[in-house]
Design brief:
InterPro entries: Depp_CoAkinase, P-loop_NTPase. The chain is α/β, with parallel strands linked by helices. The protein has two domains: 119 residues, P-loop containing nucleotide triphosphate hydrolases (Rossmann fold, 3-Layer(aba) Sandwich); 75 residues, no CATH class. The chain is 51% helix and 12% strand. The site of adenosine-5'-triphosphate has 16 residues, from α1, α6 and α9.
Length: 202
C-alpha cells in the first residue's frame, strides 16, 4: 500500500449505526482528507436502471421499487433489518459492486497524494481490516446510539434496536480499533479530539 512519508494514507473509519461516522467524515473532509463513503457507493450501486437494482427487483419483488424506477429504501430497510437471511441476500448483490466503486475512488484519492478515509459501516463484519492501514472507530454507548438513531430516522425503539442488532456490537468494534474516537459528548468535544488526532496525518 502506498504511503507518503511516515504517515498512514488509508484509514478505515467505522463504528455502529448512528455513532457519528458521517459527522467525523465531514470534519476530516474539511481538513484535507479524501473521503470514500460506503453508504454513498451503495446508493450508486443500485441507482435507477443499474444491474444491481434489477437484481434487487428479481430477489425482493416490485414492492421495493418506486413508481419512478428508484429503490424504495424504506421498504427494503423494513425487510432486511429484521431478517438475517434477507439481509445476506441483499449484501450479496450490493457489496461486490460497492467494493469496485470504492476501490476506484480510493485510487483516485491516493493519486492526489492525500490521506484517504474509507468510511465503511460494516468494515469488521466484512473482514476488511486488511484493506486499510489503520482502523478508527467512532464510539458511543449503545443507549446513545439508539437515542440518536431514533431521532435521526424517526424510528421506534424496537426498529432502532433491530438495526443496531444487525451489526457487530459497538463494544466489540471499540476493542478492535487502532484509534477510538469517543462521540458520546458534545460536537465540540468531538472536534477537539479530531483536531489532535489528525495532526500527524496532514
Ligand atoms: C437497506 C437500505 C436500502 C436502507 O437504506 P437507508 O437509506 O435507510 O439506510 P442507509 O443506506 O443510509 O444506511 C444507514 C446505515 O445502516 C447500516 N446498514 C446498511 N445496510 C446494512 C446491512 N446490510 N447490514 C447492517 N447494517 C447496515 C449502516 O450502518 C449504514 O450506515 C440500505 O441500507 C442498503 O442498501 N443496504 C445494503 C448495502 C449496505 O450494506 N450498506 C452498508 C455499507 S456497504
Ligand atoms: N456529538 C453529537 N451530539 C449530538 N448529536 C450528534 C453528535 N454526533 C452526531 N450526532 C447526530 O447523531 C446522528 C448520527 O450521526 P451520523 O449521521 O454522523 O452517524 P453515522 O455513524 O454516519 O450513521 P449511519 O451509520 O446511519 O450512516 C445524526 O443525526 C447526527 O447529527
Amino acid at each position: 500500500m502506498s504511503k507518503v512519508g511516515v504517515s498512514v494514507t488509508v484509514i478505515g473509519l467505522t463504528g455502529g449505526i448512528a455513532s457519528g461516522k458521517s459527522t467525523v467524515a465531514n470534519f476530516l473532509s474539511e481538513n484535507g482528507f479524501v473521503i470514500v463513503d460506503a453508504d454513498i457507493a451503495s446508493r450508486k450501486a443500485v441507482e435507477a436502471g443499474s444491474s444491481g437494482l434489477e437484481e434487487i427487483r428479481t430477489v425482493f419483488g416490485d414492492g421495493v421499487i418506486q413508481e419512478d424506477g428508484t429503490l424504495n429504501r424504506k421498504a427494503l430497510g423494513e425487510i432486511i433489518f429484521k431478517d438475517k437471511n434477507q439481509r445476506e441476500k441483499l449484501n450479496a448483490i450490493v457489496h461486490p459492486r460497492v467494493r469496485d466503486i470504492m476501490e476506484a475512488e480510493k485510487e483516485a484519492g491516493l493519486a492526489l497524494d492525500k490521506p484517504v478515509v474509507m468510511d465503511i459501516p460494516l468494515l469488521f463484519e466484512n473482514k476488511l481490516e486488511h484493506t486499510v492501514d489503520e482502523v478508527w472507530v467512532v464510539y458511543v454507548p449503545k443507549e446513545v446510539q439508539i437515542e440518536r438513531l431514533m431521532a435521526r430516522n424517526q424510528l421506534s425503539l424496537e426498529e432502532a434496536e433491530s438495526r443496531v442488532s444487525s451489526q457487530l456490537s459497538i463494544e466489540e468494534k471499540k476493542q478492535k480499533a487502532d484509534k477510538v474516537i469517543d462521540n458520546s459528548g458534545s460536537l465540540q468535544s468531538l472536534y477537539q479530539q479530531l483536531e489532535l488526532l489528525i495532526q500527524s496525518y496532514i
